[in-house]
Amino acid sequence: MSYYYLVSSLPSITLDASPELSSEAFQALCAEHLTASDARALGSISDAETGHESSHPFAGQWIARETQLRNAAARLRAAKRQQDAGSFLRDHTGFDVGLEDGVEEAFNQSTPLARERALDEIRWRILDELAGTDPFGGGAVLAYGVKLRLAERWAQMDAASGQAKIEAAIAPSEGTSPQGETIETETAE
Fold it and tell me: Is the per-residue pLDDT at 187 higher than 70?
């Protein structure tokens, strides 16, 4: 099925700019226009979790490719730490050699931010491929939904909030030890 009106009303999105449409607004639009099958597929991919199966062609392929990407990343992280990645790997259908190569290239980036960007660019290319040739088809709408989440994620990133998250993760809470034990403190009077 083609969704001419829905797709025509969607603003373009990139990883470089804050999207004009929120995921919540997109979901509301989709609820009005998608078939039951496409709506279920959007729901199955909206949480970005892997390991779920879907009978929808787009959702099944996306979940498999995302699982392969995460598995490749887990293997590279484990190799760096000289650990076995087996417990972190999930089963998936199919195999894309280019995706494996892309993940390896992403892990060669000089900073964690550049690595994350490279991984999301791989995801974006996969979504372009999975969207198919019909720019108004269900695949295009589902790909847009995932791309929108990626764009929102990048729009929320800034140096100040990143630094605050790092400091919160590293520094123990005031009055507690790193193990969470209460620390007695004296105050000067």
Answer: no
In this prediction the pTM is 0.82
Q: What separation in angstroms does the CA of 32 have from each of 3, 29, 37, 40? A: 11, 5, 13, 13
Tokens of 48: 């970005």
Q: Computed from CA positions of residues 62, 132, 94, 104, in that sequence, does the dihedral angle turn out positive or negative?
A: negative
The ranges assigned to domains in the chain are: 4-164
The tokens describing 111, both together, are: 């900073």
Give 45-55 pLDDT, tens digit per residue: 865 454 466 78
* Cα 16–Cα 19–Cα 24 angle in degrees, nearest 5: 140
DSSP 64-94: HHHHHHHHHHHHHHHHHTT---GGG----S-
